[in-house]
Amino acid sequence: QNSMVLSAAIFITLIGLIIYLHFVKIDQESLLVIGSLGIQVTSSYASGKESTTFIEMGRVKDVVINEAIHMQKVIYYLCILLQDPEDPQGVSEVVPLFQSSKPRLDCLIEVYKSCQEILEQRKTAPQSS
Fold first, then answer.
1. How many domains does the chain have?
2. First to last CA, the chain
3. Over its length of 129 residues, how does the chain's per-residue pLDDT go in tens digits?
4. Which domain holds residue 115?
5. 117 and 125 Cβ atoms separated by less than 8 Å
6. Which of 8, 79, 95, 124 has the fewest CB atoms below 10 angstroms from its CB?
7. Angle at alpha carbon of residue 83, lines to 109 and 101, rounded to 5°
8. Which secondary structure element, helix H or strand E, spans residue 115, and what is its range?
9. What local confidence, expressed as pLDDT, does residue 25 receive?
10. 68, 117 in Cβ contact below 8 A?
């Protein structure tokens, strides 16, 4: 009977590990910004599964670096501010990026500058109807 309990515990542990690798453990995160189309955020899990989110550029109000205090430590993260459809000056949603990888501030600044360049090009480009 002890071997049966041990076998069940090992089986449950393996199932838990598989679920963790497939749904929780993010291996890599990427951001693709195309000024004329939008922003694509991709998360690759340890199991090989990929999750992709696309945000149309018309919904993007701005990209900002936000800060938060967590466990007596200041952490920085990149966010996409989505424009409120009813109030063009307002923000309807804040989408945090790179939540699993938690890059250093100097890395976030480089990504932020690149995003701002693309957003500025979009604002200065002539609007076609």
1. 1
2. 74
3. 788 899 999 999 999 988 887 777 888 999 999 988 999 999 998 888 899 999 999 899 999 999 989 889 999 999 999 998 888 788 889 999 998 888 999 999 999 999 999 998 877 766 554
4. 1-124
5. no
6. 124
7. 35
8. helix 105-124
9. 81
10. no
Q: Provide the CB-side half-sphere exposure for 20 (13 A, CA).
A: 6
Evaluate whether 44 touches 64 at the Cβ level (below 8 Å).
no
Provide DSSP, 21-82.
Answer: HHHT-EEEEEEEEETTTEEEEEEEETTS-EEEEEEEGGGEEEEEEEEEE-SSSEEEEEEEEE
Q: Edge-to-edge strands of the sheet including 74-83?
A: 60-69, 74-83, 91-96
Residue 129 lies in a domain: no
